Structure prediction request, 458 residues.
Amino acid sequence: MTDPRQNQGKSVFIRTYGCQMNVYDSERIVGLLKPLGYGVAETPDSADLVVLNTCHIREKAAEKVYSDLGRLKVIKKSRNKSGDDLKIAVAGCVAQAEGAEITARAPYVNMVVGPQAYHRLPELLARAARENGEVLDTDFAVEEKFDRLAERTADGPTAFLTIQEGCDKFCTFCVVPYTRGAEVSRSVDAVVAEARSLAAQGVREVTLLGQNVNAWASAPPAGMAGNTWGLGELCRHLAKIDGLDRIRFTTSHPRDMDDGLIAALAEEEKLMPYLHLPVQAGSDKILKAMNRGHTAEHYVKLIERIRAERPDIALSGDFIVGFPGETSEDFKATLDLVEAVGYASAYSFKYSRRPGTPGAAMQKQVPEDQKSEHLAQLQALLERQRVEFNQKQVGQSLTVLFEREGRKNGQLIGRSPYLQSVHVSAPKSMLGSIAPVSIEGVTPNALAGVLKEGEYAA
Ligand code: 5AD
Ligand code: SF4
Prediction:
């Protein structure tokens, strides 16, 4: 058999699990390895280095890493037989939380690198080559990480931009405060420099990322007086960048939804009318046990306040069913809250017991079959709301940012302000532009529309 790597430079295959922050980190890892001569491989078979950028949030995601490692071991062994090698790196949150376990369960892994230490991958690669053993780096060094990353290369008209990492909230179900560390905000100047560079490369929409993105806070930019800035001020400032036409941010926490941010949502047109604001559950007893720091009423009132300021805002949320102690009555309160709010989209999960979190040690764990039953009920309601929201757009005109070609000839796929996929017949030259589209129908996962006559050249 011929080796698919013949006659090629070095290459890296990255598999990304989990959230958008990992997607961002994977892009930065590719950027870090580029100066070392690494191109991107499409499969592990054609790579010299495989990076698994992992997620620890639920048990299933974490276990998947070990099954993927098992498959990589086979490739590595067969390479070793012919005197060659495949280097394997485990990055991300499983690396942070289970570094020692990875070393024990998969000793053939060469590098284990946490989410705040991946800027040191080039050094670790050199060490792994020298020592031919396993090297581990799970320090928390966020500031240094961002300083050490190279300039970004944009890939298309939309981009993620991490502005904040970590979490100090300690919800009792969640591993994030342990895997990503304490809340850290990047400076205004660093964020603006990255956003400007993206805009100069044709990026028209940025999504600001953070585990608690609306907890972002920093001093005003160099040379400007005044108090600490919050996310609202940052968004208004970014909105001044020419060429950047859409700004989004995710994920927000209800407790950090301050007046400045709500006012920015109301007044800044470049801020898209879509807000991901997880509530997790609708019962005050469960919210308290989760250590969310707010009640269901506080959340619903907050939504009312935001809607009063920006009436067209679409809401998205995260939900957990089957947190310890959740009865059918508590679950009913979640359904009531969903009915009261009305979501355009949502993510919902069965509670997963995560080692080391307070929830894992709680009494009254909920049986799996009850979790499954409640999840199915909740998802049916959320799906009904999603479909209703999409159907409401039929007959409306929405601006669409065209991101990529569709599967059909002459079709482009873009996003509405509400983050819906929109399929349109349009020339390829319109990729990267924003144009008004008449919405004519809905498909299971998207809207179908036509370009509005005479407005092609937006
Ligand atoms: N079990 C199930 N879902 C979880 N999430 C976080 N931790 C857990 C867990 N232990 C969900 C929350 C969070 C989203 C990112 O993942 O809903 O908002
Ligand atoms: Fe996890 Fe809660 Fe922090 Fe979100 S706010 S990252 S759910 S601990």
Remarks:
- The chain has 13 helices and 21 strands.
